């Protein structure tokens, strides 16, 4: 049987798209170079934060709006998965050392200027202790960004693999698809993340390093981010006493193991925020490259001649943006399946996604 779509790359975007496309009634085949648990994906290494407000300071309003859309989709989508996925939407607490109060004021001003829907609260020491007992007497001020979320990335990848089985997606795990191959389907969708560079020349890697700790007894209700002029490190509690400390952001295609500098930066921030982490156990140190386009925004491009779509450039925002991006792809697919020679124009909702010129530049 000829499938409607063949998806190459079953990381975060590929799995999510395959599942939602199948739920919408399309026949889907998925090819993933690595295991079904998802350990070949950048999404396996990631922190899983869905924090549109915290990102508003560095990202354009349209991306923030897409992040908000994703934030509203995640709970519903996660509920529809066949296995539970840890999701915490109790918001972000931004904290800082006294010497960095200027950085906090700058962050607050930028947030107000860039995000008209920004809703945050300034907390004093007492309020911090009430909101986040683990931080009691550690910080004199904080900014609370309610509603922001994080999703357990590894549980998500596994639950998505189960969902693909449930909805009848034909999955080929451990199946690397070469550039020269054209899987048999009406439309092929390339979701290879950083590995798509051979076709999309402007893609680059942005290295990120992350540490996973086991710290039973240290439980955080919120995501904690330490504001600092030179780094942006966050701490996220995960079930069973686990804690994620991420992430560095380095302009480099180098996905080799974590550097001493990266490990020191992440661990010293973690220790300065929560000194009781001194006795935590380091379970994993990891690194990978985020797939980024020159403007650090995601893009969809389509070549009518090749009947090939490429969706990429999720950068630091895979979990923040992928539901909104998937929704967009599903909105244009019916038209393209009816007429594969149709040209993909700019999206009315997210104008920066997908243009004909980009599609032509692709081949
Ligand atoms: C340290 C770190 C922390 C991060 N934290 C966050 C965060 O908190 N929040 C957030 O929103 N984002 C975060 N990200 C970014 C996020 O992980 C990425 O944006 C996201 O994973 C990109 O998704 P993707 O599906 O495009 O690529 P991937 O997740 O990398 O998936 C691509 C898949 O394609 C497969 N593949 C490659 N080549 C082939 C081939 N030839 N044939 C078949 N399959 C192939 C790969 O095996 C892989 O499974 C973080 C990234 C890093 C590195």
In a few lines, what is going on in this structure?
The chain has two domains: 3-47 and 153-199 and 295-361, 3-Layer(bba) Sandwich (FAD/NAD(P)-binding domain), CATH 3.50.50; 92-146 and 205-292, D-Amino Acid Oxidase, subunit A, domain 2 (D-Amino Acid Oxidase, Chain A, domain 2), CATH 3.30.9.10. Helices cover 32% and strands 25% of the residues.
Provide an overview of this structure.
With 363 residues, the chain is α/β, with parallel strands linked by helices. It has 2 domains: 3-47 and 153-199 and 295-361, FAD/NAD(P)-binding domain (3-Layer(bba) Sandwich); 92-146 and 205-292, D-Amino Acid Oxidase, Chain A, domain 2, CATH 3.30.9.10. Helices cover 32% and strands 25% of the residues. It has 10 helices and 17 strands. It has helices at 12-23, 42-45, 52-56, 61-79, 101-114, 125-131, 153-167, 260-273, 318-338, 356-361; strands spanning 3-8, 28-31, 49-50, 87-88, 92-95, 121-124, 141-145, 149-151, 170-172, 185-190, 204-214, 223-227, 232-238, 242-246, 281-292, 299-303, 308-312. The strands form 3 sheets. Strands 6-7-5-12-13-14-11-15 form an 8-stranded mixed beta sheet. Mean pLDDT is 94; it is low at 359-363. The structure holds flavin-adenine dinucleotide. Flavin-adenine dinucleotide is lined by residues 8-14, 31-34, 40-43, 45-49, 176-177, 191-193, 195, 208, 210, 246-247, 288, 290-291, 312, 314-320.
Keywords:
363 residues; alpha/beta; FAD/NAD(P)-binding domain; 2 domains; eight-stranded mixed beta sheet; six-stranded mixed beta sheet; globular; disordered C terminus; binds flavin-adenine dinucleotide
